[in-house]
Amino acid sequence: MASKNPYTDRQLVDEKSHKSLTLCRTVLKSPQTSQATRVSCLARFVALLDALPSVRALDRQLRSNATSHISTSECRLLLDRSIAYRDLAQAFHRLGDSCNSTYNYQRATTLLQTLFSSISAQEESEICADRREMADTTQKALMEALCDWAEIERTMGRNTIAKRIQDRAARLTKSLANS
Predict the structure, then answer these.
(1) How many angstroms separate the CA atoms of 127 and 116, rounded?
(2) Contact between 81 and 50 (Cβ < 8 Å)
(3) Angle (deg, nearest 10), helices 129-155 and 98-120
(4) Distance CA 21, CA 145 (A)
(5) Could you tell me the CA-to-CA distances from 48 to 16, 20, 22, 52 in Å, in that order?
(6) In whole angstroms, what is the distance from residue 138 CA to residue 148 CA?
């Protein structure tokens, strides 16, 4: 059985990656961390997670079947990665890098949407309190990422793209209200 903390589960995260991820998380939690260092650590964090064989396997699994069952630890790992992409997009935006910000918002929303679909596809009886909390967190992060991304596109003068993103957020909100 997988542990609650995905970073201590050696089937998901090897020892070397665990040490690097822990260091990144420590630096990111520090209030003294500069914006440039924050961007660097977040980029390293998502690169480490993207490179994990377990994460690559989960990505392939969810791409081929979005309703695949994934464990709570796997779900938490994918959620952390998605939120790290969103945080990276926000950090790039604060530094004035709209191009990288846009890319990372797009990546975050794709990952969050896939993860939310996977969680939502499970039978209600299978969803425990942890999963329900992760579904709520995923939904909230997805809506925030979509709204932030639309705002970035608008400030870049790409109103058509911003409108499509807003429409996507509205459709998602409507479908969530109907379910």
Answers:
(1) 13
(2) yes
(3) 150
(4) 23
(5) 10, 8, 11, 7
(6) 15
The vertex-28 CA angle with 113 and 155, nearest 5°, equals: 55
Would you mind telling me the total number of residues written for the chain in this entry? 179
In the chain, the amino acid numbered 116 is F
Q: In a 10 Å sphere around its CB, with 0-12 CB exposed, 13-18 middle and 19+ buried, how is residue 126 labelled?
A: exposed
C-alpha angle with apex 46: 103 to 8, nearest 5 degrees?
155
The structure's pTM equals 0.86
CA distances (Å), origin 127, targets 4, 149, 161: 15, 30, 35
pLDDT in tens, 145-175: 999 999 999 999 999 999 999 999 998 888 7
Tokens found for residue 149: 């991304």
Residue 88 CA to residue 41 CA, distance in Å, equals 9
Q: What is the pLDDT of residues 38-87, one digit of tens each?
A: 999 999 999 999 999 999 999 999 888 877 778 888 989 999 999 999 99
Helices (H), the chain: 15-29, 35-51, 53-64, 72-94, 98-120, 129-155, 159-178
